[in-house]
Design goal:
The strands form 4 sheets. Strands 2-8-7-6-5 form a 5-stranded mixed sheet, sandwiched between helices. The protein is α/β, with parallel strands linked by helices and about 475 residues long. It is about 40% helix and about 15% strand. The protein folds into 3 domains: about 90 residues, no CATH class; about 120 residues, Aspartate Aminotransferase, domain 1; about 250 residues, Aspartate Aminotransferase, domain 2 (3-Layer(aba) Sandwich), CATH 3.40.640.10. Bound molecules: pyridoxal-5'-phosphate.
């Protein structure tokens, strides 16, 4: 996306100012600053008002004049052309969308701060189609009566996972909260001490339990939890058993946890539902793609989970959503919880999710069509060749730095497969001539973030790294670099 430009000098507006008789004399005292009206009456500013509306331009003129007044009082000087330039920058600053596309060259494919999964074209098209006008989001075309918005994703989810029912909410945190609140309010939920996790962004299992209105009962120890530990705490107040996928860390060494199958067995012996929060939750076995094994939703259900919760925008590769799949009667109970209304997905999410799920019906083409899987399975040789081609381009932009192709490891991100790393290639930018390159690298990283499409890398080991795994449009990337401004 191109950044709007209002640069007075570049646009020849500077000379235009001269032609139009804008005084170029220095203004060294506040009394010689123009009034808001006078600034608005210069032809250049009248053009701004035509393009962006008088109200916005007036407000911007007021604020830049107030700032100019302070600067002049502090002994600086200015002139009309500079004021007009500041005004154009102020307008640009306000109009530039704050949420915009970036290049994710951090090496973390599913980066929560960078929006997680990139969507496939078919999902983008579905979102466009459904957002342009009216849709049957809650309307049954067969009967002509009110319909259920949840049905749009449910049939495919059931088909792909073997679940009896499924429900979509805004994100997986909501899915967990809703599940616990619906099935365990005012009751106890035993969870292994090794699974009382924080996933970042203030999602802490104990806090979620409290907000869901249930009482957490800690079981076992951080590194070892045994079957008997569960037997010991289950009583008349126990609502369900829960397994939380420890998604962003691993406990190694002298450890013991109760397997999903055993936990399900214990739960069912006491007639309790067994819930698994998978976190990332994949619908397919990742091993054939040379990725490490991650429990699939189908496997979790097969090992006895009555409900499984997972994210739409992690390994699934779809829009932000939380998905709950499992037993029909429990899904129906969740649907009846008034909280569901407060967590319901919008039609745009449902459109995207349905399109993504449809891709899973043809796994042979999934690596081509689903960007998340395509990026995760990208051939390291191809990434290295891309790095080779871009190294000289980047070297030309950053003359004071040294740009080299370096092997690196990407990670999946969002807590999925946390320990495993994917072989990748990066551009490694250093300043070998400087002993402490920290501030030079920070300035360089900032210059890349100021590009029309900001480029986000990572700084470590005295280098700025651009992992190229997630860079697919090479041509657009090179074009974007033309605007790199090095201070
Ligand atoms: C990521 C994650 C969540 C939260 O999912 P969001 O979609 O980010 O709300 C919950 N539980 C686990 C185990 C996770 O990995």
């Amino acid at each position: 996306m191109a950044k709007p430009h209002f640069n007075v000098r570049e646009a020849g507006l500077f000379s235009q100012c001269l032609l139009q008789g804008v005084e170029m004399t220095r203004i060294e005292s506040p009394q010689y600053l123009p009034s808001v009206d006078r600034l608005l009456n210069t032809p250049t500013v009248q053009n701004f008002a035509c393009d962006h509306g008088l109200a916005l331009v007036t407000r911007c003129a007021q604020s830049i004049l107030a700032r100019a007044r302070l600067r002049v009082l502090a002994g600086e000087s200015t002139d009309m052309a500079t004021l007009i330039q500041s005004l154009s920058e102020e307008i640009e600053h306000i109009l530039l969308p704050s949420l915009r596309p970036v290049y994710n060259l951090t090496g973390t494919v599913l980066h929560t701060n960078l929006g997680r999964a990139p969507l496939p074209q078919s999902a983008i098209q579905s979102m466009v189609d459904v957002s342009r006008g009216a849709s049957n989001v809650e309307f049954d075309l067969e009967t002509g009566k009110r319909g259920d918005r949840h049905r749009h994703a449910e049939a495919l989810l059931c088909q792909l996972t073997g679940a009896e029912g499924a429900l979509v909410v805004n994100n997986n945190a909501a899915a967990v909260l809703l599940t616990l609140n619906s099935l365990a309010q005012r009751k106890e939920v035993p969870v292994s001490r090794g699974e009382l996790i924080e996933i970042g962004g203030a999602f802490r299992m104990p806090d979620i339990m409290a907000r869901a209105g249930c009482k957490l009962v800690e079981v076992g120890t951080t590194n070892r939890t045994h079957r008997a530990d569960f037997d010991a705490v289950i009583g008349p107040k126990t609502a369900l058993l829960m397994k939380v996928h420890t998604s962003n860390f691993e406990i190694k060494g002298f450890t013991k946890s109760v397997s999903d199958k055993d936990l399900a067995g214990i739960a069912h012996r006491y007639n309790l539902p067994f819930i698994t929060d998978l976190g990332s939750g994949t619908l397919i076995d990742l091993e054939p793609y040379n990725l490490p094994h991650e429990t699939t939703v189908t496997e979790a259900l097969a090992s006895g989970a009555d409900l499984v919760t997972f994210s739409g925008d992690k390994l699934l590769g779809g829009p932000q959503a939380g998905i709950i799949a499992g037993r029909r009667d429990l899904i129906d109970k969740l649907k009846r919880n008034p909280m569901t209304r407060a967590m319901r997905p919008d039609k745009i999410t449902l459109a995207a999710l349905q399109a993504v799920l449809r891709l899973y019906t043809n796994p042979e083409r999934l690596t081509d069509e689903l960007p998340t899987l395509r990026l995760l399975t990208r051939n390291p040789v191809e990434i290295e060749q891309l790095a080779g081609r871009l190294a000289s381009v980047l070297q030309d932009c950053c003359k004071k730095f040294e740009v080299a192709v370096s092997q690196t490891h990407s990670q999946v991100g969002s807590g999925a497969l946390p320990i495993d790393k994917l072989q990748s290639a990066a551009l490694k930018i250093t300043r070998p001539d400087v002993r402490r390159p920290g501030s030079a690298l920070n300035r360089l990283a900032k210059a890349f973030r100021k590009l029309p499409v900001p480029v986000i890398g990572r700084i470590s080991d005295d280098a700025l790294w651009f992992d190229l795994r997630c860079l697919e449009d090479e041509e657009a990337f090179v074009r974007n670099l033309q605007d790199l401004e090095m201070s």
